[in-house]
Structures are given as structure tokens and as C-alpha cells.
Design a protein that fits this description.
With about 400 residues, this protein is of the alpha/beta class. The strands form four sheets. A six-stranded antiparallel sheet has the order 6-3-10-1-2-7, with helices on one face. The two termini are about 30 Å apart. It binds flavin-adenine dinucleotide (FAD) and NADP nicotinamide-adenine-dinucleotide phosphate. The site of flavin-adenine dinucleotide (FAD) has 21 residues, from strand 6, strand 7 and helix 10.
């Protein structure tokens, strides 16, 4: 059944499972989260992603309102009309991180008015971080220099923003905005995508995710990622509706022919679509062999979906499971190293037409795995570097579409 739920019109789903996958003593918080699709008519295939619409933490909304002295019941218009300011700050804009547009505007206001920032330290700012301007009692000239230092280049603005949200900034710079001014400068709320970690055939009526919760602390305040904190801290399994929609993939799909072998590389939360692939291949009774490369910090605390993986190994559904526990020994071990150690076999699978899938960290892991594939083609395929690169980037990726990536 098709449905009209979309980014603009998300389905209000309920979370029915929400638990931490890590063992005790882990440095990480990775959660398994299941959403009930109810009577939405939403459908998906393995490889698709789920869009989740987050909301801001109520305590940050309240801090911001108090800091600016706004009336929370004031009616405003955003992408939604006729909301109270409190509702709009919760749902319509992102307030856990300031935008560069906001900072540019603030710095212009400070410069234009010749204001001395944070000159009157009020009761409410006293408990916050010590504003640098106040800390050394500098006057107008120094305030301006500091504004110029922040505003000097896109990099200095971005450095400033990295550790501060609006509460931090408006504690530091005593500038007042009308609610309308603030809402027009803050970034509109954006949905987050998550690779689906379930097969609809194995879990009818549900869609499941594997989510790494982002938490950090700056200026003595516990903060974190908007959507992951929302899912972990605000929702739990409270029954509160969460807006979701499907984001289907055209390319990150299983081979049509179930006899084809597949190699899956998914360290960390990168395991998500491969749990879904495995469930689907088992359900379909696909005969092709499945080889999963997985890794994370420690076997004791990060062996996600251990029982299910061991069952697949016992049944033979998972032909091979190769792990890289990066911190279980002195020297880091990563999945690309394991791929290279098994290079001859990986190459033999490629020669027989195996598909190669990768999911997880785009900035480092995916690049290193890509390089490892080229090196395997050189070492075991006897190709020159140029030919090996062509094989991986042209033949596998573009011509035969059997090197497929879901990286973020
Ligand atoms: C196609 C796709 C699939 C994805 N699949 C998954 C998945 O299966 N599982 C998963 O967990 N994620 C997945 N993601 C990532 C996910 O969409 C979110 O980006 C992620 O959950 C963070 O969202 P957030 O709202 O919690 O964080 P955000 O509010 O977006 O904030 C994260 C940002 O915080 C900032 N930050 C500032 N200081 C720090 C600090 N000290 N430490 C860390 N960050 C800091 C960084 O700019 C960082 O990018 C996927 C992304 C895409 C595009
Ligand atoms: N910016 C954020 O908000 C934030 C926060 C957390 C995660 N993430 C991102 O979310 C994605 C998944 O995070 P995750 O927690 O699931 O897993 P992850 O951070 O990608 O870690 C999974 C495993 O990969 C290892 N790893 C680190 N660098 C690697 C490299 N160059 N090549 C291969 N493996 C490498 C890690 O080892 P070590 O850690 O021991 O080095 C760990 O064992 C990544 O994109 C990550 O960057 C983003």
C-alpha cells in the first residue's frame, strides 16, 4: 500500500523499543530503536533510510526564553502558523547550535551600536560560563576587537560556533532580540536520516534503527546531537509521537539474483543496513554467500546484535564474520586491515561477481576501505595502480554497480 507521508507531512509514529546495545563500561551509547508503523501504510525495502524529525530539548527552550525575557505564550508564525513561541522554539527551528547568519547579525549589531557586551552581568548569567569580556573587565575597544577576532574569517566564526549554542552566546553577548527576529535568524529544523536496520519481512509493522547517540560538553553544559538526544532522552518509549518518513534508495540494494555472493563492511552504526540485508537474505532463502566485516572499539562492549549474528553463523546463513576490535589491543585494528589480510579471498569473490557494500563513517573509514580495495586489486589481481583504480572506481562502481556505498 502506498502512503502520502513525506518530509513535509511526516507520520506520527510511536517508539516501541529503545535500548542501549553497548555493554557496561563502554565509551559509546548506541541504541536499537523500533518505530511502530501502525496504520500508516508506510512500506520500505532493505537499504532504505528513515527520516526522523527531531524536536529541541524543552530545558534549552526554557533557558532561551528566560534569558531573552520572552513571553512563551506569544503567538508567532513560522513554517507553521499560529504557534506559541515555546512550541515554535521546540519544533520549528534548531536551537542546539547557532547559525553563522545569527552570529554575523549579532556581531553587526554589537559593532553598529558600539555596545559593550555583557556589561551588566545579571542574576541569570552569573551561573553561566564566565564571559571572556567580563572576566578581564575590558572596555569597548577590546569588545570590538573580540568581535572582529570572531568575525575575522569563516573559520573563526565556525570555531566559535563549534562549542556554543544560543544560550552560551546570549549569555556572553547581552543583546535582545524580538521572538520574530530570532526565529528568522535561527536555522529551520532539518530531519535526520538513518539507515534502516530491519527487514520488513522479519519485523512486519515495524521499522528499526541503530543510532549512535551524540553527546558532548562545553562551557560546563551537557549538550549533544539534536536528533539522537531527542530519541534517547526525550522520547524513550514514552508513547510521544515522533515524525517519520521513508527515504527510499535506488542504488543501495541487494542483488536481484539471490545466488550472488555479497561482502558487507559496516563498522560501528554502519552495521545497520547489513542486519537488514541478512534478515532479508535469510527470509528469501537466498543461496549466495554472505560475508560481514564489522568492528568497533571493543568486543566486550560493542558486539552489537551478537546473538543474532551467532545464530546466522551457526545456521550457515552468515558464511563469514570478520571483526576488527580497534581498542582491544595496543595497536588499532580497523576493518580495512582485515580486508587486506583476507585480500586473496576477497579478490576471488570479486572475480566470481560478488557485490561489495560499505556503510558508516564517510570522512575516514570509507576512504581507507576504498584505498584497501585498490590495493587488493593490485596485489591479488596483478593490476597496475591505474588499472586497479579503474577496476574499483569504474568497473565495480559505475559499469557493474556492485560496489555500493551508504556513508555519512
Ligand atoms: C544516509 C544516512 C544514513 C545514516 N544512518 C545512520 C545510522 O544508521 N545510524 C546513525 O547513528 N547515524 C546515521 N546517520 C547520521 C544521522 O543522520 C545524524 O547525522 C546523526 O545521528 C547525528 O544527528 P544529531 O541530530 O544527533 O546531531 P546534530 O545535531 O546534527 O549534531 C551533530 C554535530 O554536532 C557537532 N558537534 C559539536 N561538537 C561536537 C562534539 N564534541 N562531538 C560530536 N559532535 C559535535 C558536529 O558538527 C556534529 O556534526 C546517517 C546519515 C545519513 C546521511
Ligand atoms: N559528528 C558526530 O556527531 C558524530 C559522533 C559519533 C559518530 N559520528 C559519526 O557517525 C558515524 C558512525 O559512528 P559510530 O560510532 O557508529 O562508529 P565510528 O565512530 O565510525 O567507529 C567505529 C569503528 O571504526 C573505527 N575507525 C576509526 N577510524 C577509522 C578508519 N579510518 N578506518 C576504519 N575504521 C575506523 C573506530 O575505531 P576507534 O574509534 O578506536 O579509532 C571504531 O572501531 C561516523 O560517521 C562517525 O564519524 C559522528
Amino acid at each position: 500500500m502506498s502512503s502520502d507521508w513525506s518530509l513535509k507531512n511526516p507520520y506520527a509514529s510511536k517508539i516501541v523499543e529503545n535500548y542501549v546495545l553497548n555493554g557496561e563500561g563502554s565509551n559509546k551509547e548506541t541504541r536499537h530503536i523500533a518505530f511502530d508503523l501502525g496504520d500508516s501504510g508506510l512500506t520500505y525495502k532493505v537499504g532504505d533510510a528513515l527520516g526522523v524529525v527531531p524536536e529541541n530539548p524543552p530545558h534549552i527552550v526554557d533557558e532561551l526564553i528566560a534569558l531573552q525575557g520572552w513571553d512563551p505564550e506569544h503567538i508567532v508564525t513560522t513554517q507553521a502558523s499560529g504557534r506559541t513561541l515555546r512550541e515554535a522554539l521546540k519544533k520549528d527551528v534548531e536551537i542546539h547550535m547557532a547559525t553563522s547568519t545569527f552570529v554575523a547579525d549579532l556581531l553587526n549589531r554589537v559593532k553598529a551600536s558600539g555596545l559593550r557586551m555583557s556589561l551588566q552581568m545579571t542574576e541569570r548569567t552569573r551561573n553561566g560560563p564566565a564571559p571572556a569580556v567580563l572576566a578581564n573587565g575590558r572596555g569597548k575597544q577590546d569588545d570590538r576587537s573580540r568581535v572582529e577576532a570572531i568575525n575575522a574569517t569563516p573559520e573563526t566564526v565556525s570555531d566559535y560556533l563549534w562549542t556554543r549554542d544560543y544560550v552560551d552566546i546570549l549569555r556572553e553577548f547581552n543583546v535582545r532580540y524580538t521572538p520574530e527576529e530570532f526565529l528568522s535568524l535561527a536555522g529551520k529544523v532539518k530531519p535526520r536520516l538513518y539507515s534502516i536496520s530491519s527487514s520488513p519481512d522479519a519485523h512486519p509493522g515495524l521499522v528499526e534503527l541503530t543510532v549512535g547517540i551524540v553527546r558532548f560538553e562545553y562551557h560546563g553544559r551537557q549538550r549533544g546531537g539534536l536528533c539522537t538526544q531527542y530519541l534517547a532522552d526525550e522520547i524513550g518509549t514514552s508513547g510521544t509521537p515522533v515524525g517519520v518518513f521513508m527515504s527510499p534508495t535506488k542504488s543501495f540494494v541487494l542483488p536481484d539474483n539471490g545466488d550472488v555472493d555479497i561482502i558487507m563492511v559496516g563498522p560501528g552504526t554502519g552495521i545497520a543496513p547489513f542486519r537488514a540485508f541478512m534478515e532479508q537474505r535469510v527470509f528469501d532463502k537466498a543461496k549466495g554467500r554472505n560475508w560481514l566485516f564489522f568492528g568497533d572499539q571493543s568486543e566486550k562492549t560493542e558486539y552489537y546484535y551478537k546473538e543474532q549474528i551467532e545464530d546466522w553463523l551457526d545456521s550457515g546463513d552468515l558464511y563469514k564474520f570478520t571483526t576488527a576490535w580497534s581498542r582491544d589491543q595496543e595497536e588499532k585494528i580497523y576493518v580495512q586491515q582485515r580486508l587486506k589480510e583476507h585480500g586473496a579471498e576477497v579478490w576471488a569473490w570479486f572475480e566470481k561477481g560478488a557485490y561489495f557494500y560499505i556503510c558508516g563513517d564517510k570522512s575516514r573509514m570509507a576512504k581507507d576501505v576504498h584505498r584497501a580495495l585498490i590495493e587488493i586489486a593490485m596485489e591479488h589481481g596483478g593490476l597496475s595502480e591505474a588499472d586497479a583504480t579503474h577496476f574499483v572506481e569504474q568497473t565495480m562502481m559505475k559499469d557493474e554497480k556492485r560496489y555500493l556505498r551508504d556513508v555519512y
